[in-house]
Design brief:
Keywords: Aminotransferase, Pyridoxal phosphate, Transferase. This protein is α+β, with helices and mostly antiparallel strands and 97 residues long. The protein contains three helices and three strands; from the N terminus they run αβαββα.
């Protein structure tokens, strides 16, 4: 829930509706901001030691965040802070609309 609520607060929209919530991975739509570029977004998070995944949905611009494994609340807070920082570095307006 920390991830889902945090991403929503930043303005990211889940790819699937709440009736399809899972606990292993969550997909998010790309922001419609003209400054968003997935490769840059991915690289900047990776430089901070964080890994997200490209979407695997045909004809849909989305990315995935895994939520399974030895993860703790502070891990999600770190990821959310990094996503916010990267969006600011990329001049993406938050919350994303």
């Amino acid at each position: 829930r920390i991830l889902q609520e945090g991403m929503k607060k930043l303005g990211f929209e889940e790819f699937l509706g709440p009736e399809h919530d899972g606990y292993i991975i969550t997909s998010y739509k790309y922001p419609k901001d003209k400054n968003f570029n997935f490769k840059t977004f991915y690289s900047k998070l990776n430089e901070k030691g964080l890994v997200i995944y490209p979407g695997k949905v045909l004809n849909a611009d989305c990315f995935r965040i895994g939520t399974i494994g030895n993860l703790f609340p502070e891990d999600f807070h770190e990821l959310l802070a990094a996503i916010e920082e990267v969006c600011k570095e990329m001049n993406i307006m938050l919350p994303i609309t």
